[in-house]
Specification:
Blueprint lengths: L4 E7 L6 H12 L9 E7 L11 E4 L11 E6 L12 H16 L4 E5 L3 E3 L2 H9 L4 E6 L4 E10 L3 H13 L16 E2 L5 E2 L4 H10 L4 E2 L2 E3 L14 E2 L5
Parallel strand pairs: 1-2, 1-5, 2-4, 3-4, 7-9, 10-12, 11-13
Antiparallel strand pairs: 5-8, 6-12, 7-8
């Protein structure tokens, strides 16, 4: 039985970073079928530039319609919570946990979360993500030695856990004392894929010292798409062009 699946990112869009979100939409909208997903969602933390693309339907998060006009939708909160400190990223918590409300409203069976500066670049990882049908799966940052919350797959049997996280977030006014990697109730941390936050200079430098020729990887994170993406080809091989 096929699962009704959405793929989403959290967002805060202004004039300076709209390229980032357009790039993310371009990349993943063309691969929805590979992920067995039907919709691409952005859940937005009070952005000033929600009209950055005429492909995107804007939806007020406080008054969800009974049905959606298109399959690229931005769910907009009018106020901006942002990230007051390193551990306090209220805007992300609200947007991320709100995905359960969209799943309930639109009869979704599976949520794929991929942040807007992360790219799944191997077919084997996409196939793996598409095939997951139970649990709450995340991947792994070998550099930091903790779960990678920028990529998550949450299936219907774990929606009760996500709903509890949503309620806890609302009750705490979206403020937690620990980072998400130490709070969210994953059922599986998958360490069998090659990827990390290579957009961070210290991680890329660490990688380049260990690997003198380009190596095939499965995902890449925290990259600035406004820069020279060909630069990464010195270090990595991708199945898909960025």
């Amino acid at each position: 039985m096929s699962m009704k699946t959405i793929l989403f990112c959290t967002s805060f869009i202004n004039d300076d970073n709209s390229v980032r979100y357009n790039k993310w939409i371009d990349y993943y909208h063309n691969k929805l079928d590979l992920f067995n997903a039907g919709n691409l969602f952005l859940i937005d933390d009070g952005s000033s530039n929600i009209s950055f693309s005429d492909r995107v339907e804007i939806v007020n998060s406080n008054t969800l319609p009974g049905s959606l006009k298109g399959n690229i939708n931005l769910f907009h909160f009018e106020d901006h919570l942002g990230r007051p400190s390193r551990k306090n990223y209220s805007g992300w918590w609200r947007s991320f946990t709100f995905s359960i409300k969209l799943a309930e409203k639109y009869d979704i069976d599976k949520i794929i979360h991929i942040e807007s500066d992360y790219y799944i670049v191997s077919r084997r990882m996409i196939d793996y993500m598409a095939a997951i049908s139970e649990g709450w799966t995340v991947f792994y940052s070998r550099f930091y030695g903790f779960p990678e919350t920028a990529i998550q797959i949450i299936c219907k049997d774990s929606f009760d856990k996500l709903n509890k996280a949503y309620k806890n977030a609302v009750e705490s006014n979206y403020q937690f004392k620990k980072i998400a990697e130490r709070v969210l109730p994953f059922s599986k941390v998958e360490k069998g894929f090659i990827g990390d936050r290579y957009g961070e200079e210290k991680i890329l430098r660490h990688w380049s010292k260990k690997n003198k020729t380009p190596v095939a990887i499965d995902y890449i994170g925290q990259i600035d798409v406004r820069g020279d993406l060909d630069e990464y080809k010195k270090y990595f091989r991708f199945d898909f062009d960025l």
